Structure prediction request, 417 residues.
Amino acid sequence: MTRPGCRALTSIAGLALVLAMLIPIVATAHGERAQQANTRMRTLNWYDVEISPAKIAVGEDIKVRGRFRTSKLWPEHIPSVEQRVFLNVGAGGPNFIRTASNIDGISAVQSTSLELGKDYSFEIDMKARRPGRFHVHPIVNVLDAGSMVGPGRWIEITGSQDDFVNTVESMFGREIELESFHLKSIVSWHVLWFVIGGAWLVYWFRQRPLLIPRLRAVDELDEKGEDADELISPTDIKVAIVFLAVTLLIIVGGFAWGERDAPITIPLRTAKTSMPDNKPFPQANIDVSISEATYRIPGRSFRMKLTVDNRSDRTLRVGEFLCANVRFINPEVRTVEPIDEHDLVASHGLRVEGGPIAPGQVSTVEVFAEDALWETQRLTRMINDPDSVIAGLLFFYAQDGSREIVEVGGSLLPIFE
Ligand SMILES: [Cu+2]
Prediction:
């Protein structure tokens, strides 16, 4: 290709890249299914999650609340919640502001650490900021492991972003509108540094050949045994000194200006909130152990053989199996319908053989969780895991609606035909 042709092509490619970076892409999904199946099953099991109201106007409040249980079968290769976690919200963009959050009633504005095999309640208060329709999830960010994502809900925000106000009062009684606070200075500083950086680049681009031609020139001088530093002229040095001096002056000036404007500042707080030590393990009046777990690939059928010891004074029946945010419901016990099109509820997904378990009885129950969600939620990939261990929560219901929740888990055997 001719050199001008090549150059034109490079410019077009460069321009396309810049444009691609500038044009915001609307994200319709945010990777909730991309996470490995075992990470979704064996880290946090979310339940009773409520995100409401589903339709609000800009500036109105919305609450995300529910419970999660940290898995006893947390994979060894994934750093756990015992290090550092942060309760968060997953929504595509700054569409909400968080005004308060807590885990077990303890403020979760800062990060904290949790224990494995325990049950926690959480609450997040938010205000709608931008109009649109967003998929919102509660999230627990785990240090070095990533986000453990809870179930999502579609939330519709109406109105206009112009109506959004986010005013706070500083410690000294100064009222600040966070949406626009010092926006002008932020823009001015960016423009200033772009101009200075650009001027520096332009100076060098105008001077003499750069990059590869310059490397060649340096090599040539080296070959001749001459000093390559000769390429830098006394003018270059003078210009560099001026640039350095101006840069330092602006930094010092900016600092002094900032100090005058806000003499007292404190850094962002990064301390960890401590949760009460030795929180008791969740109690259940029932003992459950898996003696066998299989997944039949052609039928998308997951089967568990359980030994259940009912120590309660009520007859219990398996009503739900919750695994990786997918809820398999036994229609004979409960009626649960999906709230929206992405609510992972298999209303008829659970079949139980072995019937109700009478008080004081030890019985063998077979549980079948069958639904296309195994496939569409990419949970079947667990059969490719070296340790093929699955886990989830089993919900046992009594006639009066009371329930017992137990985490079950164990090795899974895939069946291919
Ligand atoms: Cu989502």
